[in-house]
Amino acid sequence: MWCGRVALRRLQRIAVAPLNLLSITGGLPGAVQREASSLPRVYITRQIPPEGLKIIRESGQGIRVGYTPDVLTDAVAELTVALLLTTSRRLIEATHEAKSGGWGTWRSLWLCGYELANSTVGILGLGRIGVAIAERLKPFKVKKFIYTDVAPRPELASLIDAEYVSMDELARRSDFLTVCCALTPETKDICNKDLFSKMKNTSIFINTSRGGVVHQEDLYEALSSGQIAAAGLDVTVPEPLPTSHPLFTLNNCVILPHIASASYTTRNTMSALAANNLLLGLKGQPMIKELKL
Amino acid sequence: MWCGRVALRRLQRIAVAPLNLLSITGGLPGAVQREVSSLPRVYITRQIPPEGLKIIRESGQVQFDLWDSDEVPVPRKELLQKVKGVDALVCVLTEKIDAELLDAAGPNLKVLSTMSVGFDHLSLEELKKRGIRVGYTPDVLTDAVAELTVALLLTTSRRLIEATHEAKSGGWGTWRSLWLCGYELANSTVGILGLGRIGVAIAERLKPFKVKKFIYTDVAPRPELASLIDAEYVSMDELASQSDFLTVCCALTPETKDICNKDLFSKMKNTSIFINTSRGGVVHQEDLYEALSSGQIAGAGLDVTVPEPLPTSHPLFTLNNCVILPHIASASYTTRNTMSALAANNLLLGLKGQPMIKELKL
Q1: In A, residues 248-267, which contact B (CB 8 Å cutoff)?
Q2: Which chain B residues in 18-37 lie under 8 Å from chain A, judged by CB atoms?
Q3: Contacts of B164 in chain A (CB under 8 A)
Q4: Residue in A113, A95, A232 with CA at minimum distance from that of residue B321
Q5: Nearest Cβ partner of A136 from B178, B209, B312?
Q6: Closest by CA position to B151, among listed B353, B328, B2, B281
Q7: Terminal-residue alpha carbon distance, chain A
Q8: Mean residue pLDDT across chain A
Q9: Mean pLDDT in residue range A279-289
Q10: Do the Cβ atoms of B208 and A73 come closer than 8 Å?
């Protein structure tokens, strides 16, 4: 970092920027020789909430916005399958037992879980991520894929040989139900006691989409009463979920702190994409991924 | 229940039998006419999963006694008492079937059915000497084991144990770009140490995660199995230096004992993930501890250890980047019930003098 009066003047010429900018310009020392003051002023933030986008749009300043969709599909699908398996095969309980003295002599039904082989997997909301999840589950000898959505999605469904069903059928037939839909006014709280009451008591419920799709009190009831066997969540309301939340008290509920895209390669890819969007935007060129405002 | 003199006479005609006997023969009133005492006697050393018990009970071919618990094994003294004079025995891997037990059982014992694929608890010589036929339960576990291995790999590579702990204990704050990041399978090289049916099943399950390449090592190439997963045969050294994920699938033999040691770990990438669901003895645990704590490799997941259970004071339990499971690879309701059913059917076929579904050659 810099120090002293010279540094202060430089700072004044360049808009206040977090460290991110310094790393983009390759470290200021070399850049100082160039006319630092002619460098564009940029501000980098990680996320712009919808209100922020509204303000940008309405400012009339023609601010362009780049973002980072699509590059996360592999990481998210992988994490969803990881969460599903951790839940169905009870890995959290098992590691805890091993560590805390619960591991005794062999027992034939201890820590038994539910296998994917010969099961029916249901997808709530079939998009690219839902397809990517199904592709990863197939070699576990899943017998059938079914899905529900606002309307059939024949092109995507054909990639995974999935059958279009109603919400009720999805609930009744799924051994594993994974939520992949967007959060909209229609999908808010769509996973509620009406859904859970129709599910099998051996079923596993997985949500890596958005917390708002699940009615958390109803889920707690369904899990604690044994209406469904177990659940795995990567998203909650709110985030972080307060540690006092009742869902944390259940052995059959696995909660992750929203890490679906948390891999070194994917986060670096997002970072590189953000940087390239920035530089292209500043040169007045089309960004790689630009958000239409 | 019965009452009165008639009942008492019936009781006297039938050998004193445990309650189970009444249920097998469908309730005594009908069975009284048959000669109950001629049915072969079986002792079952554990409350095995329901499917096997159902098959035995409903066969009408045996009378049995049962250690009616899954929580603790039958005490040795009780076991030696209960096996006296039996025609057949159903056991699990916690019972040592040795000369002492076989002597206690006596000459009627013709069939032993173990609900396990391993047989290191059986004294094969003693069984062979006495002409006892042995059934066991191989092959039916492949799907469950491959599934659990992939579950363990992903839990390790994507740091799910650390993550659930952070969520539960207040570590979950605002979003951070590199917090809890893991290593993805996409574009990686997966190495298999010992390519058998389970190694192939694991690779088949990993493929759609966009693994770039599968490599394997073994005592010799396995071209038929390798072609199923398009895997390349390499040396042990190459396996170590090229694998992003290394999964151990070999049997434990004198040659493979401690084969995963500092020599292997020192050649691996510091971003690599090591997984063992085969046998604990294949891994030199002190060397693994060094490799993990020094960052020589990124993480490890183990379903098997030495000993089992691993004492809770073991240093491996102190590492954030080591996931340890208590040998649950075959622990699914369907697989355990399938093993139970297979053990039951092996038993019944053996008693009828027919070929068992899975018989151990002695």
Answers
A1: 248, 254-259, 262-267
A2: none
A3: 92, 254-256
A4: A95
A5: B209
A6: B328
A7: 36
A8: 86
A9: 93
A10: no
DSSP state of A209: S
**How many whole angstroms separate alpha carbon A289 and alpha carbon A65?**
9
Helices B142-157, B333-351: axis angle to 10 degrees equals 160
What is the tens place of the pLDDT at every residue in A160-189?
Answer: 999 999 999 999 999 999 999 999 999 999
- For residue B33, the model assigns a pLDDT of 45
Here the tokens at position B77 are: 């003294």
Dist CA B28 CA B48 (whole Å) = 25
Which residues of chain B does A267 touch, with a Cβ-Cβ cutoff of 8 Å?
Answer: 177-178, 181
A245 as an active site residue: the answer is no
Cis before B107? omega within 30: no
Please give the structure tokens belonging to residue B289.
Answer: 């501890």
Give the residue among B13, B55, B18, B56 at the shortest CA–CA distance from B35: B13
A:72-91 residues touching chain B, CB 8 A cutoff: 74-75, 78-79, 81-83, 85-86, 89-91
Length of chain A (residues): 293
Find the mean pLDDT for residues B349-360. 97
Asked whether the predicted pLDDT for residue A43 surpasses 50, the reply is: yes
Mutation for testing the A interface, residue in B160, B188, B230 having most A CBs under 10 Å: B160
Spatial contact of B336 and B103, defined as CB atoms under 8 Å apart = no
Closest residue in B to A99 (Cα–Cα): B312
Beta bridge partners of B122: B97
Q: A243-259 pLDDT, tens per residue? A: 999 999 999 999 999 99
CB pairs under 8 A between A and B: 196
CB-CB contact of B159 with B165 (8 Å)? no
- B9-18, B54-63, B220-229, B230-239: segment of lowest average pLDDT: B9-18
| A21, A170, A211, B220 from B226: Cα distances, Å | 49, 38, 43, 12
Phi-psi region of B82 (alpha: psi -120 to 50; beta: other; left: phi over 0): alpha
Mind listing the pLDDT tens digit for each residue in B321-352?
999 999 999 999 999 999 999 999 999 999 99
Quick count: other Cβ atoms within 10 Å of Cβ A90? 27
pTM recorded for the entire structure: 0.84
Q: Which of A85, A112, A262 sits opposite B151 (nearest CB)?
A: A85
Which of 265-284 (B) contact A at CB < 8 A? none
* Phi and psi torsions of A51, nearest 5°: -65, -35
pLDDT score for B188: 98
Give the residue carrying structure tokens 């399938």.
B338
Residue B87: pLDDT above 90?
yes
Choose, from A96, A215, A245, A258, the residue flagged as catalytic: A258
pLDDT tens digit string along A183-232? 999 999 999 999 999 999 999 999 999 999 999 999 999 999 999 999 99
Task: Please count the helices (runs of H) and the strands (runs of E) in chain B.
Answer: 15, 12
**Distance from the A88 Cα atom to the nearest Cα atom in chain B, whole angstroms:** 9
Q: Inspect the interface and report whether the beta carbons of A265 and B184 lie closer than 8 Å.
A: yes
Q: What is the ipTM metric for this complex?
A: 0.84
In this prediction, residue B23 has a pLDDT band, given cuts at 50, 70 and 90, of very low
